[in-house]
Amino acid sequence: METLPIKIYDDTLRDGEQQAGVFFSYPTKHQLAHLIAKTGVHGIDIMPFICEQEAELAKTLISKGLDSLIFSATLMNKKFIDQVKDCGIKRIVLFYALSDRLLFLRDPEIRQMSEFKGKTIDDDIPAKVIDRIRQNAIDSIVEHLHYATKVAGLTVDFAGEDTSRADFDFLVQCIRSCSPYIENFFLCDTVGILTPEKSYIWVNDLLQSTTGVTLGVHYHNDMGMALENTLQSVMAGASFVSGTFAGIGERAGNVALEQVLNGLRVRFGIEVEGINYDAIAPVTDFIEKLGVRPAPPYSQAAQRHETGVHVNSFLSDPKSYDAFAHSTINVIFGKWSGASNFQYLFEKQLHNPQPREQYEKMRSVIKSLATEQERYFTANEVLELWKNGAFQ
User: Fold this and answer.
1) Separation CA 326–CA 269 (nearest Å)
2) pLDDT of 175-190, one tens digit each?
3) Computed over its alpha carbons, how large is the radius of gyration of the chain?
4) Which residues contact 287 (CB under 8 A, 6 or more apart)?
5) Which residue from 332, 255, 337, 336 is spatially nearest to 301, judged by alpha carbons?
6) In 3-state terms, what secondary structure has residue 192?
7) How many CA atoms lie within 13 A of 139 on its CB side?
8) Which residues of 217-226 are buried (b: 16+ CB within 10 A; e: fewer)?
9) Angle CA(37)–CA(42)–CA(48) in degrees, nearest 5?
């Protein structure tokens, strides 16, 4: 059987746990990390700046001999870069959105301009404004890549969030700008809009247009095509795959790594170099016994959101993290939530705005309760806590 020297990066403990309503206890994550390590994957993602428990997990796993595997997906913020380094992690995947839709929402200059208040990329936005937010993004990315590599001394990869909705020429420009600082560039189909035919052509065209950095894929399963999209991308020349075991994750989940590995083996007669195939089933069996599985594509369950950065975008643009028109967003509250979750509840659903400091206090309390009780909270439970004075 042919072997393929691609790399497999596991996001089960980070992106997988970001599935709305999923909570892995500290012992569970510790055991799961060691099971995953036995499969021979090339990296395991931990996000230590989310809470103290995640930081302690990263430190413990590193001290237990997994230091060569642990990396951290890291928000583009020097404070978070420093926090990750302080945990002993040596490799990060810096990530930032590259689609015009998300760039427009997050550009700090645009957010201060009254003429764009309440607007999205679907409004009549001048081309010169789009050019400016793209250049602002590249400038900021390069600044943070320089800091992470030259100042913090970390090995750095970059993940382009929502690259499947990014302008192709801008994406090429961004990859070229990143290449002096990084080894790998993650192409992310964040809201799962790719098709197999588009995936092959897209990756092939990007490989033809860039040099100096390897390209890999991180695909979500909103339309049920993450597996085939990933396989076609590998056939087109992608050098690595990022996903989760059992396919758990945001909305309808990520591509399932066991399906990618066995799909390459069965359909194409290809084994991934270094993978211990006998160690895969113990991982998926362990997750199955926890009762955790991804929400089905197109289901209402796939429209539940807990992650703060996503909910924050929904406040301004319903299409930011939703590939489907007319879907109903259901926000829940837990370890991965931000102040925006509470802002969404009180302003978008209850039409009863609260001061910003109240949202931040709610976030802190719920994060602590979620970690202590190993659970998430519904909107009704948050309102009950509010009425009972838990956020005072």
Assistant:
1) 42
2) 999 999 999 999 999 9
3) 20
4) 12, 32, 245, 246, 248, 293
5) 332
6) coil
7) 8
8) bbbbbbbebb
9) 75
